[in-house]
Write a structure and sequence with these properties.
By secondary structure, the chain is an alpha+beta fold. The protein is built from 6 helices and 7 strands; from the N terminus they run αββββααβββααα. The chain folds into 2 domains: 18-116, 2-Layer Sandwich (D-Amino Acid Oxidase, Chain A, domain 2), CATH 3.30.9; 128-205, FAD/NAD(P)-binding domain, CATH 3.50.50.60. Residues 124-186 form the FAD-binding domain.
Length: 220
Amino acid sequence: MEPNYKQNGNWLGFPEPQYLGHCAFRGLGFYPDGQPFEPKVNYVYGRGLRAGYVPVSSTKVYWFVCFNSPSPGPKITDPAVLKNEAQKLVRNWPSELLEIIDRTPDDTIIKTPLVDRWLWPKVSPSVSSGGLVLVGDAWHPMTPNLGQGARCALEDAVVLSGKLATALDAGPVAIDDALKAYEKERWGRIFPLTIRANLVGSLLQWENPIVCVVRNNSHS
């Protein structure tokens, strides 16, 4: 999350997003002469560790390495250090994953802690106040385990614009009602998705060897 997103949430009384005990390296491997992979998501699982990669264009391959960590650790901005740490985690894993990481330009690799915020009904603050309204991660940060974060932010924007389209010319009361309607409609989708993404991530990051065998067999 960007700092201004956190600040906007704090203005409306939302708590800080909660760190979930794992971090992720992410990047874009670059193949100037064309990447060789099939158009599908490839996953690799370990104990408290998982990785994946998927082509996103004819020359670029998105990859991630997610690992358990008791704390987010210090912020690292040196791309060489980030790449080295990611490769160390998966050094005995498939060679194509290591190659993709090695082919990642410095400006496309990041490390982030995974966080979320659960919007409890009747407990969480309102999504709008004093002319400020939240969308996306500023309101409902969720883990990337379902690949729904950016999609939900776009859905927020579509629903919000639709509610406001007929209210802007009708005055403050109509606008306030439109914002409440936006919150009510979106909550029913966002809250279950946030919880589901959290639970899926927790399951995939388990370190128990028996659970890992069951998980791996279910994905084979």
